[in-house]
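Title: Prediction job returns without error message
Component: structure pipeline
Severity: low
Priority: P3
Assignee: unassigned

Description:
Job completed but the reporter wants confirmation the result is attached to the right record. Sequence as submitted:
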Amino acid sequence: MSDIALLPQVEAFLRRSHALFIDGGYVQSRSSQTLEVINPATGKVIAQVANADPADIDAAVESAKRGFKQWSQATPATRGNVLLKLADLLERHREELAQIETCQSGKIIHISRAFEVDQAAHFLRYYAGWATKISGQTITPSLPSFAGERYTAYTLRQPVGVVVGIVPWNFSTMIAIWKLASALVTGCSIIIKPSEFTPLTILRIAELAIEAGLPAGALNVLTGGGLVGKGLIEHPGTDKVSFTGSVPTGIAVGQSAMGAGLTRATLELGGKNSAGFLRDVDLDKAVNGIIEAGFLHSGQICAAAERFFAHRSQIEPIMDKLAQRLSTLNIGSPLDERTEFGPVTNRQHQLKLGAFFDKARAENNTIICGGNLIDRPGCYVEPTVILANTVNDSLLNEETFGPVATFYPYDTEDELLELMNNTPYGLSASLWTNDLSKAMRMIPSIEAGTVWVNMHTLLDPAVPFGGIKSSGIGREFGGAFIDDYTELKSVMIRY
């Protein structure tokens, strides 16, 4: 087994002293502090990035305010064309961006190419199409006329202003694109604050955005730790925050935003997503579905399933087949094209997963396979299957965000629905069945923002996505995002 060779431009990019991206170019931080970027496949430092301080935040916000004044006045077609050009540039630099992403996140190279770059370009083109379709209404009011007066009214959609996009480490490129595309197509400017674990790819994309024709200040990138995000949210010059990440951090973000002057907030949070398998599902199909739902990118997907419910008569055969399949996965370097299963993204998360395995053993859960950290350089974790004892067991209720599938049996379909809804979260869920009629009857009873049938995790830009209950506020994609990035202005005229 061997890794692909890094492109010369990737090696050169990693060797840079990475500054902040403000006002259309790189700017040295007012602070001398830096953060190390570590390759989770090797444990080695691959780059240094700036750790922004309050003065840097002020500079980025002022730049974004200037950028907003210019960008908000651009014609809708101009905004759409810039996004289209950026999509073309992502594809032109596909391998370069994919390699940078794999080096910083440990994502296997196939996923970096197909999801982080290809899907990001696909989403950009979808959002670009909305540029010329954001519109208001014409309304005829029913107001009294005493001297022949008439009335008309209409509504305008206007950009909210300066957006803060806080991006997690699991899909740092694609999620950054979701946020910047939503902001830019509506005429907002945006400051991206990437995760301190995966800050590199968006810095390169910011360069490409300027090449695509985006004016200075419309997109700024501030690298650094959590205090940078907090400073941006609470800054009086920002108007909206779009956050993707954990539930506890999301709640804190929402509270900070409201406390800072009713700053708008879109929160796409995680949860404990369920997959329910009805008795009619073929066992091999069920196993394929579980791998799709729970083990893509080592389970590090907000919408991934972590709770799996199968009929009591089928649960052991399903788990046995799954364990067999997982044991054959090729675990290795994410830069090796033959690798099927790579590391988790950082050491901190690896140790957190180890603590979950300890909890499972302490609660006498049955570990069908896995349940260990892999003793090799980097942040590797065994793909794991666990059978819970009770509905109150930790791994059936706490988000692991890793390659861990926790199972529990059910006896009736009513019990299945009760189990799937027995959580404070509600981001996503899936049903697996050959009986479409039964699925259609069950879907309204499932408490989740997205319900898949015979599939899981896959997202399309035309279909709104977001959570209910503790899994978030607001929606991305479709036309739903427009409400979150625009203000609705009503105009009434008497004549």
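Comment from assignee: result matches the submitted record. The mean pLDDT is 96.
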